[in-house]
Amino acid sequence: MPRWVPRAIFLLWLGFLGTVLVQELWDRLFGFFLLLVISLFIALAIEPGTNRLARRGMSRGLATGLILAAVAVVVIGFVAVMGALVADQASELTDNRDGYVTDVVSFLNDNFGTNFDADEVIDSLDDPNGPVRDFLNSQADRAVQLGVSALSTLFQAFSILLFTFYLAADGPRLRRTICSWLRPQRQRVVLDVWELAVEKTGGYLSSRAILALVSSFLHWIAFQAIGTPAPIALALWVGVISQFLPVIGIYVAGALPLLLTVVDTPLKGLFVLGFIVVYQQIENFLIAPRITAQKMQLHAGVAFASAIIGGAVLGPTGAILGLPAAAVIQGVLSSVGERYEVVDEAQGDGE
Predict the structure, then answer these.
(1) Half-sphere exposure of 49 (CA within 13 A, CB side)
(2) How far apart are CA 81 and CA 276, in angstroms?
(3) pLDDT (tens digit, 9 = 90+) per residue, 114-132?
(4) 227 phi, psi to nearest 5 deg
(5) In 3D, which of 233, 214, 210 has the Cα closest to residue 223?
(6) What's the rounded Cα separation, in Å, for the pair 9 and 32?
(7) How far is CA 240 from the centre of its chain?
(8) pLDDT per residue as tens digits for the range 124-180
(9) 244-251 long-range CB contacts below 8 Å, 24 or more apart?
């Protein structure tokens, strides 16, 4: 047997065991790394505000704490308002259930040629052995699971805030520590990429905020004209969720106003659905590309692709982080290599 064979077998098994160990550690620590990525994204987003307050004499820890507290208050307030709206509508639905059932059945029979009996539907809702009661009873265990998931989400949110606080408050020290391991030329590259990440993250948030304001304003006008319940709250819901949850955000955001309006008046629900669909097309082709290109210098096609790729890799979190990540990568690539003058044949017509 050649001498290298035992060594090759040993190295093969060592590589195999190392790969299994790395895979196992990655599976167990994936959630932790995801929390760190989210925390880094938020820290980059609030760093300009932290630096501005620190230049005015405030400590970075206090400045970071104030900004995070303000963000938490806004998020909690938004969730509380929407929760109160849903609770009020659910209470109203329960109190006026028979009238809503009669209206919906009449709408279906008049417009779709069905022959539903409103009294039979109401009786099936009241029947303790009916399908509705069976469905509600089957969901009792899921309520406990939702409670556990809510506690887990609160713990993760607290962990993200804690990591964000340390990353933002100790940002300069973290950069100095990283740069101390690198040569001066590499240090400048790291600092340039860091500043680029801060700029692109801020551009992403500002572009999303502008789109959310535009969307909320136009949806408020439409909901007010249609006569939906709580038009301001529903418009804010659509504007915020549709912009800060890419790709699937519009479907999640549009479901609530559509459901509440259909329960109130089915015909109004069709108008709500039509406006949401039409506005989404106008935003995708006219409004969003202009704002995204101005704030992030990112092509609309690249932005859409980055959201899809991020969602495929990391789920909803990846869809949100995909846009600033793509902007940073594009900015880094644009500063690498030489650029040459484009020949006339490549200019294209009308440019």
Answers:
(1) 18
(2) 22
(3) 788 878 777 777 777 766 6
(4) 95, 35
(5) 233
(6) 35
(7) 9
(8) 777 777 666 676 666 666 766 777 777 888 888 889 899 999 988 888 888 888 888
(9) 244/208, 244/212, 244/320, 245/316, 245/319, 245/320, 246/307, 246/311, 246/319, 246/320, 246/322, 246/323, 247/307, 247/308, 247/311, 247/319, 248/311, 248/316, 248/319, 250/276, 250/280
Distance from C-alpha of 235 to C-alpha of 16, rounded to nearest angstrom? 55
Helix (H, G, I), strand (E, B) or coil at 336: coil
Q: What is the DSSP letter of 346?
A: G
Helix, strand, coil abundance in the chain, percent, nearest 5? 85, 0, 15
- CA gap 159, 167 in Å, rounded: 12
Put simply, whether the predicted model's pTM sits higher than 0.70 gets the answer yes
User: Whole-angstrom Cα distance, residue 322 to residue 303?
Assistant: 8
Q: Is the dihedral of CA 53, 55, 56, 61 positive or negative?
A: positive
Q: Which residue has the tokens 């790969």?
A: 19
Instruction: Dig out the tokens for 183 from the structure.
Output: 């040569």
Task: Tell me the DSSP string of 301-325.
Answer: HHHHHHHHHHHHHHTHHHHHHHHHH
Q: What is the Cα–Cα distance from 168 to 54, expressed in whole angstroms?
A: 12
